[in-house]
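Support reply, case 0932

Customer input (verbatim):
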Amino acid sequence: MRPAIVHLLSLSLGLAQVAVATGPAVDTGTAPSANVIAPAPTTAPAATAKPAPAATAAPWSVARRSIVEGKDANRYWQVDYLMRNDGAEATTIAPGGVSAEVEGWVSNSRVSSHATPRMSRVAVSGASGLVGAGDVIASSDECRRCRERAVLQVWPAALGDNPPDPVAKATVRLVSTAEQKAAQVAPGGLLRVRLRLEHEHFLYGPHEPLLGPRTLTLALGDALIRDTLPLLRETKLPRCAPRAWPSAAEPPADRLDTQVFRSAPSSLHLHALMPGEQSYRFNDCPVRYSTRMRLRFYYLIAPGTEGDCKARIIQSRDAPTAWKILSDGEIEQPLAVVGRWVKVERIFRTESEATSLSLEFRVCGDIGEMWVDDVTLEPVEDDAGGP
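Our regenerated output:
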């Protein structure tokens, strides 16, 4: 017996309609191109047996599909489905009955190792902790290895637009089958399915998505949903996301001077005669590789200060197996004007393997003081991804 098939017809790149064999058309947010396929019988029916109704074999129809791109620790694609139970009875999906297989050729022309398309295959299920990963570039060297990581989350739509705990934790850790709960959906009720595909690479993953259409086979109990995901065009996400650096907690209170500052209420104070206060190094700031950056700050050197005063940029690579300072990326800025606030602006390019940088100020002589205020670091241009 041939399985019943519910076809979803794409009508446009904007709004589309879902043509359902047993019901009316429904608006969708993005044009889907999926097939909901009823399961074949597990045993061959007797010659005199009546065929099972197709409507109860595959109760799910796709009411809506949306695809967005995001950035967390890594760039990711997020695919959300709103599934409707068109069956006559309530449907329960056990944790072990949820799985997805995703594959496709992926590339990104901004990354030399991804200039040529490579195959990505990922399988994920409730049994795998709702998380799975597959190699795009296989290597024993973790610095060269590239993976695509999949997270699958399923929950009744009545519980909200976003997954409830503990399923929500799947983006950061494995969720055991003992923690997962069965999803029960009444006739006419809605089920949410979220698939997230992350680019895992210590250098490129946080900034560059993997581009290319993927085929998806999604299992919800006995039903199979097959779809093609057009993950081809980046959205206008900044590859150098703006962030507050230095943080509000820097410098610490014991390094601040509330009497001398350019911008209230205080400034960083360095004192050559005070042990431990001759220099200060800000915490590392995550950066994108090979990116033009602008550093700005103001400084004031007290009259009578002896020796040099300087600022130093230190770039580093934080790889899975080792952390190291990139000596070619070290930049030193002499600070020589005494007795008045001076603005410094320095434009530089981060190193090709840089993942973070830090900024250090120092009074090198035995006598003297220096104040530093209004420190900022930002990309020179709006380095946004997308066409």
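We compared this against your earlier run and they match. Two observations from our side: The CA atoms of residues 315 and 329 lie 5 Å apart. The first strand starts at residue 5 and ends at 7. Please reopen the case if you see a mismatch on your end.
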